[in-house]
Automatic annotation (TrEMBL):
Classification via InterPro entries: 4Fe4S_Fe-S-bd (IPR017896), 4Fe4S_Fe_S_CS (IPR017900), FTHF_cligase-like_sf (IPR024185), Helical_ferredxn (IPR009051), LUD_dom (IPR003741), LutB/LldF (IPR004452), NagB/RpiA_transferase-like (IPR037171)
GO biological process per UniProt: lactate metabolic process
Keyword Iron-sulfur: yes
GO molecular function, one term: oxidoreductase activity
Top-level taxon of origin: Archaea
The entry's keywords: 4Fe-4S, Electron transport, Iron, Iron-sulfur, Metal-binding, Repeat, Transport
Source organism: Haloferax profundi
All residue ranges annotated as the 4Fe-4S ferredoxin-type domain in the record: 365-392
Protein name: (4Fe-4S)-binding protein
PROSITE patterns for the chain: 4FE4S_FER_1, 4FE4S_FER_2
Cytoplasm among keywords: no
Taxonomic path: Archaea, Methanobacteriati, Methanobacteriota, Stenosarchaea group, Halobacteria
Residue numbers spanned by region Disordered: 1-30
SUPFAM superfamilies (UniProt xref): alpha-helical ferredoxin, NagB/RpiA/CoA transferase-like
Length: 733
């Protein structure tokens, strides 16, 4: 393994060991809470669509809304300043503090203030800065960076926080319980807030019509920070502006449910500053307050820092719709195991973090963790504003590949000395063009398999391509599915339907038996099947950020399938990630009409079998079972498409006793699990599925899975063979 890959693997390994358990427990809890809380909504998808529409409108009309907000803030008696970048914002905030002779600033949680590093600026000017959010304060005491957008100290256990407080503050009695720690922090922070000269908050949303700020928090200290000092500085990105107070409704409904699984967040504060409440003299609270003493000073500092350029960037623009709920982090299997200190850049972390880092910090920062997004698409259904997060990550990966990084260390990307900086690494070229390798592998099989498995080859593959020597390689078949199909006669007379079985790369060259089983199952149900000679879907190059190559594949695939669609044939797909390409990503590559024709004609194989059975096809034409026990794991993108239920239904109807895994990711994620820098993370993610399929109830069951990656990972984890479900139900040869 190269030094660069080993360094990345070592960092991930360390974070898995030191922070993974705490991050995983919390994020999985948040994620489960989201599932449960959104079920209380009458129209979850409708609410998400409403939120999306409001953000689209707000970003589209942003210059107009900023002008309106400035007028509103000034009419209310406050001041609004739009900062070009972090330095500009920090200068303005420092000058406000200097004008107030401020000795102490108290801050509520704000990712935007983390972005501009305002604490460092103020502390350099001899201003004491105190974080009042419990998690942020813990990290300030520990001198650590946040690891999560919503729960910054998620990586620290209660025991670790107790040790930190006991060592730092030396309380009379050692602190142990969560209640003791919370009460101690409350007392400490309460005193610090009372003596503060300036309060600084973020803002989840700001309404242009009234200047109202919405603060959505799990603690009450944000309110205190805003109203106890007589000077309030609110810091937010320009994207936080929405048109009206009425527009807050869907966001208030969604943000807590999406982020932490709460039906409603503990504290929702709507402030229209400067607020009318008087300040309090804590040294003499009984003294009557005069009119002069009730005067408050309010400054709204809105940050550009690359956002207006993002607004004009067709691909990154969607990032500005983000409401910072962290759902994309919580649902992400890789994030659950390493947290934001690996899956993050200078400020932002998680799935949407790539877009933010690329826009506000630059591609250099985004490139450091972008490859941890595997494109599994679980975050797309979790996002309350329907942001296509995997696509943003793919776009950033493509830009990194094209050399749009200003000063990135390309060794981190695994480049070898013979490659020019700014090019696609050999590793990505190989995986992105795996179809070529598969064709060569089949052409020379079984010799190619023997050569690839030799110790010399494995060493070279690891050294130059970063393919981990511990990962078992696929075994190419000399007779491809296409060869087999062309050498046989159709078995269907008086067909009730006609279909194309799409020969994805693995089905055609590696897992040929599942392709044969699919043909036999469809023909048994009265379907006239053809297996065309057509290119791979483009999923492989897309996963490596090679967008132009993926687009070429899309056009070739459509050209190869269009004649069959014209004939009225259905397109049946075995690999869920390829179906997801037809149903989602191809919308970006094909003309609208072509995309719709292909998407509407395409089905996952077990979905198609289910439909045939529901419409009268004879179930006894398939292999039935009398209570045979099956352990089933569905593919990530199959779940995103909402198709896993069809497989369960078919197996159950045919007499199988099905136990379905509730683990959402196997950890393999295509090429991700082969890469030496990510192999250990892949296996660590997979350990959850391994444990679930090795219980007393499941260890003797037949293991089936719907996707290539899942099958490969399960074979590695369980050391007992796994099969595609279509292989169970297809008639024997």
């Amino acid at each position: 393994m190269s030094k660069a890959r080993e360094a990345k693997a070592a960092k991930i390994r360390q974070l898995m060991e030191t922070e993974g358990d705490a991050v995983g427990t919390s994020t999985r809890g948040f994620n489960q809470g989201r599932y449960e809380s959104v079920q209380t909504l009458d129209d979850y998808e409708g609410l998400k669509a409403d939120a999306r529409e409001i953000k689209e409108d707000a970003i589209d009309r942003l210059p107009e809304l900023l002008d309106q907000l400035r007028d509103t803030i000034e009419e209310n008696g406050g001041t609004m300043y739009i900062a070009d970048d972090a330095a500009d914002a920090n200068r303005y905030i420092r000058e406000v503090c200097e004008d107030k002779d401020a000795e102490r600033v108290v801050k509520s949680k704000s990712m935007t203030s983390e972005e501009i590093e305002v604490n460092d600026e103020l502390e350099a000017a001899d201003v004491d800065v105190v974080e009042t959010d419990l998690g942020e304060w813990v990290l300030q005491v520990a001198d650590e960076a946040p690891s999560h957008i919503v729960a910054p100290a998620i990586h620290k256990s209660r025991e670790a926080i107790a040790d930190l407080f006991n060592e730092t503050f030396e309380p009379a009695e050692p602190l142990e319980t969560a209640e003791e720690l919370t009460m101690f922090a409350r007392e400490q922070l309460g005193e610090l807030i009372e003596g503060a000269d300036v309060g600084m908050t973020g803002a989840n949303f700001i309404t242009a019509d009234t200047g109202t700020m919405a603060l959505v928090t799990s603690e009450g200290n944000a309110r205190k920070t805003a109203v106890v000092p007589d000077t309030h500085v609110a810091v937010a990105g320009v994207e936080k502006v929405i048109p009206s107070v009425e527009d807050l409704q869907p966001f208030i409904e969604l943000i807590g449910k999406s982020g932490t699984g709460q039906n409603i967040t503990s504290y929702i504060s709507l402030l229209t500053p400067p607020v009318d409440s008087p300040t309090v003299d804590f040294d003499d609270p009984e003294t009557p307050i005069t009119e002069t003493e009730t005067d408050r000073d309010f400054h709204l500092v809105l940050i550009d820092n690359g956002r207006l350029d993002m607004r004009d960037d067709e691909q990154l623009r969607e990032t500005l719709y983000c409401i910072r709920c962290s759902a994309c982090s919580n649902v992400c299997a890789n994030f659950q195991h390493v947290g934001g200190h690996a899956f993050g850049g200078e400020t932002y972390s998680g799935g949407i973090g790539t877009g933010w880092e690329a826009g506000v910090e630059g591609l250099d920062s985004a490139a450091e963790f972008n490859d941890l997004c595997t494109g599994c698409s679980r975050c797309t259904t979790a996002c309350p504003v329907n942001i296509d997060i995997p696509w943003i990550n793919t776009v950033v990966r493509d830009r990194v590949n094209r050399g749009e990084v200003s000063e990135v260390d390309w060794l981190v990307e695994g480049l070898t000395p013979d490659e020019e900086p700014g090019g696609v690494s050999l590793q990505k070229r190989f995986f992105g063009n795996f179809e070529t390798a598969a064709k060569v592998g089949s052409l020379f099989a079984p010799v190619s398999n023997w050569v690839a498995q030799s110790s010399v080859s494995r060493d070279l593959l690891e050294r130059f391509l970063g393919i981990d020597a511990r990962r078992e390689l696929p075994s190419f078949q000399r007779e491809t599915l296409k060869d087999w199909f062309d050498a046989r006669d159709s078995r269907v007379q008086d067909a009730t339907r006609t279909a194309v079985l799409y020969p994805d790369v693995y089905t055609n060259h590696v897992q040929v038996e599942r392709g044969k089983a699919a043909v036999r199952a469809l023909e048994a149900l009265g379907v006239d099947v053809v297996v065309p000679d057509v290119r791979s879907s483009g999923r492989a190059p897309l996963s490596q950020g090679m967008i132009a190559t993926a687009e070429d594949h899309a056009h070739d695939v459509y050209a190869g399938l269009a004649e069959y669609i014209d004939e009225g044939r259905d397109i049946v797909v075995i690999e869920p990630s390829d179906l997801a390409m037809f149903d989602s990503e191809y919308e970006k590559f094909l003309p609208e009409k072509s995309f719709q024709r292909l998407s509407e004609s395409s089905y996952e194989v077990m979905e198609y079998v289910y439909g045939l059975l529901e419409n009268g096809a004879p179930a006894d034409a398939l292999q039935t079972a009398d209570g045979t026990e099956v352990a089933y794991h569905s593919h990530c993108q199959q779940r995103t498409l909402g198709l896993e239920g069809h497989t369960e239904a078919v197996l159950s109807d045919l007499g199988y006793d099905v136990a379905t895994s509730d683990v959402e990711c196997c950890g393999m994620a295509g090429s991700f699990g082969y890469k030496s820098e990510y192999y250990e993370l892949s296996m660590d993610v997979g350990s959850e599925l391994q444990g679930q399929f090795q219980t007393d109830e499941t260890r003797d069951r037949t293991v089936v899975a719907s996707g290539t990656s899942c099958l490969e990972q399960l074979d590695s984890l369980l050391r007992r063979p796994s099969r595609h479900p279509v292989e169970l139900v297809a008639p024997r040869r």
